[in-house]
Here is the input.
Amino acid sequence: MDRQLSEWKLGVERICSAAAPDYGEAARLAADIASLSGDAILRQAAMQALPSLRNAARENTDRKVQYAAQRRLGLVRDTIVFLTAPRFGKRQDQMRSPTPEERYRQMLGLPLGCHLSGAEIRQAYKRAAKTAHPDAGGSAQQFLELSEAREALIKETWARRAG
Here is the structure.
């Protein structure tokens, strides 16, 4: 599929860089992408670009229709560039395993990276415990993990206050 993406990328780049883009060829390329792409976002971008490109391919179209087609084709190009770009930097950091505090916050449905009060933590715990409690269809292990998360976050909040 990488070879196919690079071919589509070259085709779209060639059309976009032309002084007078061939919108008929762009429409055929977008239809090809929409039918063969394995990526849902790229497929959607191509399908959304098709009507504009087909309208621009007609003879005697006005400038607004051509401008809309250029913008839609640009979105398809941007999506292909994103898909073919090397993966490095922050994305790899996000694939690391979360810290215990981040995991606790996720379990309780709390936002990451902001200071929390004890009341916010207890309220989030009560909300999560309604579904995790064994009497409500959850498991005892899940409920114990929620309790552990609440205690750890409250201890951390008190430690920040004291420090």
Remarks:
- The chain has two domains: 2-85, 100-162.
- Residues 100-162 form a domain with the Helix Hairpins fold (CATH 1.10.287.110).
